[in-house]
Amino acid sequence: MKKQFLLFLLILFSVGINAQEAKINWITFEEALTAQKETPKKIMMDVYTNWCGPCKLLDKNTFRNTNLVKYVNENFYAVKFNGEGNQIVNYKSQEFVNPHYDATKEFKRNSSHQLANYLQIRAYPSILFFEENGDLLAPLPGYRTAKQLEVFLKLFQTNKHKEITTEDAFSKYQKEFVYEF
Predict the structure, then answer these.
(1) SS3 129
(2) N or C: which end of the chain has fewer CB within 10 A?
(3) Which CATH number is 21-145's, of 3.40.50.11740, 3.40.30.10, 3.30.470.20, 3.40.50.720?
(4) pLDDT digits (tens, 9 = 90+) for 73-116
(5) Cis previous bond, 141, omega within 30
(6) Whether the model pTM is above 0.90
(7) Alpha-carbon torsion 128, 142, 82, 113, what sign?
(8) 82: which DSSP letter?
(9) Type and span of the H or E element at 81
(10) At CA 108, angle to CA 53 and CA 97, rounded to 5?
(11) CA torsion 100→104→109→115, rounded to 10°?
């Protein structure tokens, strides 16, 4: 009986370890900007809101893809930013706040954060990419699967975006892209 119980515990423990999933190492925007000074990497920022269904799907599906998680953690500083939140953010020598934030609407539509306005966020979710020096590189509005996001992660991480100057060139890049996620 003791052996069966120990075997049961061992199996339960093994299942628990296997059930742990890979997670993106999310940090704040300011932490990412500071880290860039010591170890330059591009930033991938997930701009979300608490009420946004596609934002929740991005977290549930895309940001749990093991290959994507590994790639993002190795090659980017990953930032989560609530586009309607009340945090104070310093960027480009400016302080950004949400002066009209209403705590009673925390899980409903709220006012836009000044940084979201500054970055011209028009849809949630939006994934933004920033250069190693903190300059905005490109916005990517809307929900993306891991496969759809992989194209852009690798485009920006490898600096291929600097070679692509036309829609035809981007179409060719996408057509020839070898998916790994």
Answers:
(1) strand
(2) N
(3) 3.40.30.10
(4) 999 999 999 999 999 999 999 999 999 999 999 999 999 999 99
(5) no
(6) no
(7) positive
(8) E
(9) strand 76-82
(10) 105
(11) 40
